Amino acid sequence: MEFMERRILQEGEVREGNVLKVGSFLNHQLDIGLLEEVGEAFYEKYRGAGITKVLTIEASGIAIACLTAQKFGVPVVFAKKSKSRNLDDDVYTAEVYSYTHQTTNRVTLSKRFLTSADNVLIVDDFLANGKAMEGLLDVCSQAGASVAGIGICIEKGFQPGGARLRSKGYDVTSLAIVESMENGNIVFRK
Ligand code: 5GP
């Protein structure tokens, strides 16, 4: 069994609304050793892909992106969840509906930090309905940046995000794919 699956079985808690809590190692307390393994796994997969930046969205994606970017020797850039109404002209913006908070955030990213010269690896903690990822892909498209791949710690395979992204041709690498978690019983996709 893969390291992420093992850890989910040990410490993951299934909550109402198909939410998987992993606050003890990924979303609140951070296990840096585990994040290092995450970075290594994404590096092994994309080392030959000419990655120039690792892109994510605040807040939970940042630690994953840092440990990944360290392996590639490239910067991290993260989309910010903006509350400000007055936006500068020098930012890309996208709307992102949050599954866990059930709110829509506008995310912004400075045009200085993502351009058509970039070839990015996008990473995040969870992939569920794919809204966060669609926002990041929208920002990449505005920048003219290419997307070499998408690295996800935990994909909830019973929600449509992963299938939709793969059908659009994106290379999605998920370290664990939860097939179902009915009655608190977590089953992974083989
Ligand atoms: P999506 O946009 O793909 O529907 O959801 C992805 C985002 O929602 C992730 O960035 C993650 O923060 C959050 N999320 C979605 N499902 C879960 C879940 O089951 N558990 C936790 N902890 N976060 C989730």
TrEMBL record:
Top-level taxon: Bacteria
Keywords, in A-Z order: Cytoplasm, Glycosyltransferase, Purine salvage, Transferase
Catalytic activity: XMP + diphosphate = xanthine + 5-phospho-alpha-D-ribose 1-diphosphate
One Pfam family named in its UniProt record: Pribosyltran
Pathway: Purine metabolism; XMP biosynthesis via salvage pathway; XMP from xanthine: step 1/1
Main localization, broad class: cytoplasm
Gene Ontology cellular component terms for the protein in this record: cytoplasm
Places the protein is found: Cytoplasm
InterPro entries documented for this protein: PRTase-like, PRTase_dom, Pur/Pyrimidine_PRTase, Xanthine_PRibTrfase
GO MF term (any one): xanthine phosphoribosyltransferase activity
Sites where the protein binds 5-phospho-alpha-D-ribose 1-diphosphate: A128, N129, G130, K131, A132
Domain Phosphoribosyltransferase, first and last residues per copy: 35-159
Gene Ontology biological process terms from the UniProt entry: purine ribonucleoside salvage; xanthine metabolic process; XMP salvage
Binding site for xanthine: L20, N27, K156
Record EC number: 2.4.2.22
Xref: SUPFAM superfamilies: PRTase-like (SSF53271)
Enzyme class per UniProt: transferase
PANTHER family linked: HYPOXANTHINE/GUANINE PHOSPHORIBOSYLTRANSFERASE (PTHR43864), XANTHINE PHOSPHORIBOSYLTRANSFERASE (PTHR43864:SF1)
Quaternary organization: Homodimer.
Function comment: Converts the preformed base xanthine, a product of nucleic acid breakdown, to xanthosine 5'-monophosphate (XMP), so it can be reused for RNA or DNA synthesis.
Family: Belongs to the purine/pyrimidine phosphoribosyltransferase family. Xpt subfamily.
Protein name: Xanthine phosphoribosyltransferase
Gene from which this protein is expressed: xpt
